[in-house]
Design brief:
Structural class: mainly alpha
Protein name: Flagellar protein FliT
Radius of gyration: 26 Å
Number of strands: 0
Number of domains: 1
Helix content: over 70%
Shape: rod-shaped
Order of helices and strands: HHHHH
Organism: Pseudodesulfovibrio cashew
Length: about 120
């Protein structure tokens, strides 16, 4: 039982590191910690009966709370990235409009108007 509690404590520690990576924007580091945490949690919970589950309930509730925080941070990061990409799309369209307005036609548009018979 002590070994399972130690594994859960280790998973909590790794989860906190994962949350720190997400808060810092290091998605690849967070993914690495996430895989380690998943492996440790699977090992800690494997073949756990209900009596031992009750004994570890306080740590499991803490793990769930940490998972909720990680999920919230990941969603915040996803929303931020989505907004950045939408802004880049708008900026690209704006630059394309400036280019067209200044007389710079895209290469494909020029080829469309060439006389191909002669």
């Amino acid at each position: 039982m002590a070994s399972r509690r130690r594994l859960l404590d280790e998973a909590l520690s790794i989860g906190r590191k994962e949350l720190g990576c997400l808060a810092g924007g290091d998605v690849f580091g967070a993914e690495r910690f996430s895989r380690d945490r998943e492996r440790i949690l699977d090992e800690a919970i494997a073949d756990l009966d209900s009596e031992h589950l009750d004994q570890l309930s306080d740590v499991l509730v803490e793990v769930k709370s940490l998972q909720d925080q990680i999920t919230a941070e990941a969603r915040r990061l996803h929303t931020s990235l989505k907004q950045d990409l939408a802004g880049m799309r708008k900026q690209t369209k704006r630059f394309a409009g400036y280019s067209f307005g200044s007389g710079n036609m895209p290469r494909l548009a020029k080829e469309r108007f060439l006389n191909k018979k002669g």
